Write the structure tokens for this entry.
Amino acid sequence: MSVVAQSLTSWVDGEAHLDDVTLTLEPGRIHTVLGRTGAGKTSLLRVLAGLSDVDSGDVLLDGRSLREVPPWRRETAMVYQQFINYPHLTALENVMFPLRRAKVPAAEAQRRAKEALEQVGLTHLSDRRPGALSGGQQQRVAIARALARRARILLLDEPLVNLDFKLREQLREELRGLFSGVGETVVVYTTTEPAEALMLGDEVIVMHEGRVAQVGSPAVIFETPATTAVARVVNDPPMNVIPGTLQGEHVAVRGLDLLPRASHLAGFADGPYLVGIPAPSLTFGTGPGVLATITFVEISGSETFVHVDLQGTELVVRAEGIHDVSTGDRVSMTVDPSRLFLFTEDGTLAAAPPHGRS
Amino acid sequence: MSRWPRRAQYLLLIVWAVFTAMPFLWAITTSFKDVNAVQGHVTYVPWLEFEPTLEAWRQIFGGAGGVNLVGPFVNSLIITVCASAIAIVLGALAAYGLSRFRYRIGPAKNKDIVFFFVSQRIMPPVVLVIPFFFLLQMPGLLDTRLGLIIVTVALLLPIAVWVMVDFFDNIPREIDEMAMLEGCTPMQAFLRAIVPNSAPGLTVAAMFCAVFGWNDFFFAFRLTFTQVQTLPQAVVALNSSIPPWWTLSAAALFGIIPLLVLAVLVERYLSKGNLAGAVR
Amino acid sequence: MATLTLENVAQTYNPGEDPDRWALKPLELTLESGRTYALVGPSGCGKTTLLNILSGLVTPSHGRVTFDGVDVTSTPTRLRNIAQVFQFPVIYRSMTVRDNLAFPLECRGWPRSRIEERVRAVAEALGLADGLDVPASRLSADEKQLISLGRGLVRDDVAAVLMDEPLTVIDPQLKLSLRRKIRQLSDEFAPTVIYVTHDQYEAMTFAQELLVMSEGRLIQRGTPEQLFESPSSTFVGWFVGSPSMNFLRGTLERGAARVGEHLIDLAWSPPVPHGSEVTVGIRPEYIRIVDGGSHPGDASETSVHGRLVAVQDHGESRVCEIQVREQQVAVKVRREVHVPKVGSFVDLGLPRSKCLPYVEGRLATCGD
Amino acid sequence: MTALRRYKVLFLAPGLLTLFLIIIFPLLFTVRVAFSSWNVASPQMDWNAGANFVRMVHDGRFWSSVLHLVVLAGGTVLVEYVIGFALALAVWREVRGRRLLRVLFLVPMMTTPVVMAAVWQMMFHESLGPVNDLLGRIGIAPVPWLTSPGPAYVALMTVEIWQWTPFMMLLMLAGLLSLPREPFMAAAIDGAGPLRTFRRVTFPLLAPVSVTALIIRLIEASKMSDTVYVLTSGGPGSATETPGYYLYIRGLKEQQTGYAGSLSLTYLVLMIVALTIISALLVRAFRSQEELR
């Protein structure tokens, strides 16, 4: 009972929305699809739902082709990033709608709908129409409607992106709980936020320019990103990727001093590479080190991302907590050489830092 | 700041309000006049300048020496309602399809098909009426309500499509997509998810259809004769000979009263912003 | 640039309404010339109402608004000399970039040569000097937002620049560069800026000072660091920071907080009687998971025992949820820190200096 | 997907077919009959090879009717646009009695054109109508409204403007009401007064609506014949005849079906060509408002 996407390819106006996408999606697991806007995430969901056609490739459910199965017979539930509900129905009627379509008896449908609304904490608002609900509440109704159906495939297309910051955080937490009860459903969840993908996903699918760049558990994706594209998209802020060379005992990176070659970089031939410097592996201070100029400071609430100009190279540093530094300050940079990633010049991963992390 | 834009605004409003109201005021006063009040010199104010009488109103409802306008009124009503209903059903279906799916008929794409519908308004009635005459003559539909209904549908369909395409374009397509994912066929999605949320658009389309349907004169004039007479036809017939102005005025007012109700409705929908989609 | 003050300003849209339900409760506020402020809070907290009062779109039902001491309470927007950047980019579609930037100056009847000079300077700063003759309608959304901002900055006498969630419709990938550009421009031109957002990330990145609002009230104002380190209320502790601050309910006992069998040392003792309710507020970043007794806690730290119920992978860090008695505590640890198995019991180290006492939802004052 | 394709057809086909059937027969019939000598004496579909068109070329009355139409339609639509836009602006924002005024201003377009033309005919009556009476009170001699060419034009255009300015106002007002608030706030913030705001914000934003409204009204106005029929019957003489009315005389009154067919065809082609050119020009003119090229 799995969903298989077989070399899905779709071109729209000479642009590949999906390019040879092959995936196996298992029931009972949460698959998060991580990628920037335009990476093909929404196209993938629409093809799975039967809402868009592909130029080639097929979707198989339990080995059976879905090519000629129209959307209304696919048993797919979807939650959109816009809060989509039927404006003329109350919250309860909205949740009951798909159940009644699936010929669930009225009493049973009502019971299940109420249960789903309770799960998302909206029991007290079940008589309201979507127009009288806040954005967050509307999205809860949409989620309840998708859950109550117990559809075979549950697709969520950046469901939290249009919510307020705190609401997003809160609902993300709740989704983890809600997903734990999906049983035999195949869940696919798209997002542009790495933390969301890693936190919710049993399996993370990273997409880049219409292709699947990497599939794996959150730990695998984060700790051994297959390409520089994955490394950038899975880190917040994106990983610094800079041309460098391996030279005997050292790693030379443009702008930085020669760094000692850490043990995980042994065994690679000397020569040019792309060096991945995770933002948290950089630290800034007043001590010795290479001097850099701060160009911009971002504060995420609990961390500070400091963008620096290091002799013409743009780097971003991630520091825990809130630091009182400002644009134009000169700081000294140090790098933890044991945390460097090594990519070949075409961007594929050569070496990742040893984990020993978990 | 100078205050003249504000003054110009009020001046315009007053002048235009008077201009708009004039024919109505004239028709209303005249409908209570008799031959003495019309001949000789022009009179305006009842009681002061002439003695009002209900004679004209009695005549148009079949009073002695008059014409009965009740029959034409019923004809107009039946034809307008039926033709509008058919045009809206066909128009809404086509508009929904054009708003949601991609069509290709020969070289024509969606925009061209919409244009084809709307462009039918360019056909002058006088060009159509002779062929229609023969078209209706063959199956014996001349001088029948059914015949006029069919012709009126052709007249109204472009209007219905024009209003509804824009309206549907403004309903998020995710709503019907979701309905489909939840087990509705496209037709069910249309009927259960879209139509219930289209009351404003359908109402606007219905209002336009009603206005253009009710006000048609030319087709009725040439395609019906004795059996079926519509209200505009009956009113104009009064005008053709020596005008009994009071009867003509009463008949004219009677013929436009149903549409005054529509003006109020249109304004209400306008204020709610429901007409916006139609003009973009 | 001007100093803006709100004197006892309040707003209700229905006269006679219960003051507790007013959209904006009476407020005293001074915003100093040349500083950047962020107005943050959940939707419906009154931040947009406050912005509209400053822009003149809404005349407050109570109180007085002054710009540099001049009463502008009922001055129309057009005469207020403010600039505003909206959620959706607003440009004059029928004009070029140059004409867009020149427009506010033309409206004020500046001489041509001065306009040209000023427009050039601002376009230079915006990075749009090369495209001055391009129709503004052809620009991308982020460039349009820059133009909106530029129309404010060309006026060297602008009292304040208001920004109403200006990044909402900007593609996530472009947000960083636009945010950086806006920040640069406000550093360079140093106008008084009021930036409205629900996003603490944007607010902290952008503003020198944050004004946190909730339910029509100003809850706390301060620098990002102040809000993070010592939130004045449990609301601010929850609203600022991700994940939110932990709050452990307990009772006061010998100057510390009794939570079950634990006696948690507080940064300071709140001035309330022994036995009264006190809530311990501590940021997830400051809690340590004590690993197998390898780092025994010293006197500066309270040790708390609990069960690890869940671990969230956030990438660079993990958030562990630990059940302490019937309360949940979130602990944020760096990825390389070893995390025990879910279900096992762990000891947590709570640094005394980071355990803030809250009484009735407010940060308690220092007792002594 | 086959299932989806079936539904696609199901939605569009009924409407498209209905229109096609109702329109295509008349069109084909007109084309065929245009090449026949069908008239009341001999109603037959013979072939007279374009003799009708030769006759038409020399039919000065037809060509002057086209000219009359250009003046009448062009003139009225232009006036309707200006007044309609002004009225829409005037009742758009806070004005006392705004809703009542809107209803009043909408009423004329709801009324039956032929019926109102009959009412106007009374008003324009040379001796018994109120128009001349009121003019007389301010010292203007009676005008022979419907019996001399110049005044007849004025009368016709007055009635058309009275009837259809509301439609223009309706479209422009609907457009105005759908505009976002922000551009107007931005203009106020930049310090623009009412005139500058109109020139730089309102007018450009409404350019697409203006094009739609003008084209629709031109299409409708080019069919003008009902009002002519009731008000002047094309008179005096044939001074106010429009092609629509002239066709009515030839085709229906005199039943020269074949000749009327050729006139119809020419009239239709002329209209389509003219309206296509006008729309293209309008779109271009207004696009420059919207986006400089």
